[in-house]
Q: What sequence folds into this?
């Protein structure tokens, strides 16, 4: 763990650095990885932007209420692809919920936050969480589909401008 | 959308910057994401290289004619893994073509180009689209397997030299 | 191939540059891609760190002996998710082993190392291969689960400190 402490010290002494993460996949495991990296970066003093696109938009969808979606086709698609931070599944070994349930139990045992807690925590730490407006169109979504703490929506040009200024850019 | 315009302005005033994208997955959704990022970058004045590898090679395969592939095993593999910009499938909800068809309809409704149109557009904007010669060997492919507008093929060292000079490198 | 040689020359004359790769997926195809990029980078004189996390931890698990895992649930999970460099599967076309076997044959025909050989080779070339301690907890693993040539384990802060100093960072 001294390696970890050293790493944190090195970053804190550096000037404010940026990190940009594209969250493309809405799977539970990749979402955990994205939030661990994002919140660790923020705790090290980095300025972090998470850019949610395609299936990653599911993570920021409302947990309650209607499934959302524009038009009849949008509604159909979003009924199928329900979303919400509590409904994410593993990319492997989902096994009708057994594998996903086991992973959630492991997260608890290791005192790791749930995705819902990660979102709130990231928000408090100043991580910018932005739904990609371009893929909202493709996925039949609009602003009302998302949780109320989502403010800004932006497109690919906004993402690229952040990424080109970032020390670290990842596509997850 | 003013955020978008601002972002574009900031990049254009900067000197010519590079972006390198590894396109590993040949799935429709990830391919759309890769081309949106690549063409947006090019429209902002960036010098973009897309490096197609493994299943991503499917995107640049010929749409017509034989499936290609070297040797008997190569031919078998490429018959199974047919490829071509018009045959890509969603990573989820393909559902025997229904989900994939729905996504293509959404792309049309949102005036988003098809993958075929994206390839032509990217080419015109000066995006370099390069099949990875190393993975061509593994996938049993040669130059004849690809569309005629593919010129250069190159290996991992070429990619890394581009990536190390790039402001943004993504593995999609 | 002259392009390749030129690329290698350009990097060698540059000062020592870093590359950091997150290996999240434990699938055979993505693992091959990660090791081709890592060993090519090392052969070009780059200082390469591979950070294994989630399913990527499977790659560094022991090939022989017990499946490992802490506690009853950890043991159950790791029996299911056996791991070891020789047990990786393709992300597509696994087809009960037929597709995976075909890919391994293609690797041999193209004189590409197996994953087991890649690990030994990367080690000899000085590539740092580090299991992520945070995801070890989530996956129910500890140091004993890994091959004996694994030395250091580290968390997300260590990874981020490497990544922010790197010319190229990839999430595979």
A:
């Amino acid at each position: 763990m001294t390696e970890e402490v050293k790493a944190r010290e090195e970053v804190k002494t550096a000037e404010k650095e940026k990190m940009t993460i594209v969250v493309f996949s809405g799977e539970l495991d990749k979402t955990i990885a994205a939030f661990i990296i994002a919140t660790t970066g923020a705790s090290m003093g980095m300025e972090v932007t998470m850019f949610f696109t395609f299936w990653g938009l599911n993570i920021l969808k409302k947990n309650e209420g209607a499934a959302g979606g524009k038009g009849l086709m949008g509604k159909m698609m979003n009924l199928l692809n329900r979303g919400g931070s509590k409904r994410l599944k593993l990319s492997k070994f989902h096994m009708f919920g057994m594998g996903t349930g086991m992973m959630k139990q492991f997260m608890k045992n290791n005192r790791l936050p749930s995705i819902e807690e990660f979102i709130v925590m990231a928000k408090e730490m100043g991580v910018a969480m932005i739904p990609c407006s371009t893929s909202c169109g493709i996925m039949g979504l609009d602003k009302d589909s998302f949780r109320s703490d989502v403010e800004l929506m932006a497109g690919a040009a906004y993402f690229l401008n952040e990424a080109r200024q970032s020390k670290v850019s990842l596509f997850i």
The beta strands of chain A are 18-23, 47-52, 128-131, 168-171. Chain A touches chain C at residues 1, 3-4, 6-8, 10-11, 14, 17, 19, 29-30, 32-33, 36-37, 40-41, 43-44, 46, 91-93, 99, 102-103, 105-107, 109-110, 112, 167-172 (CB under 8 Å).
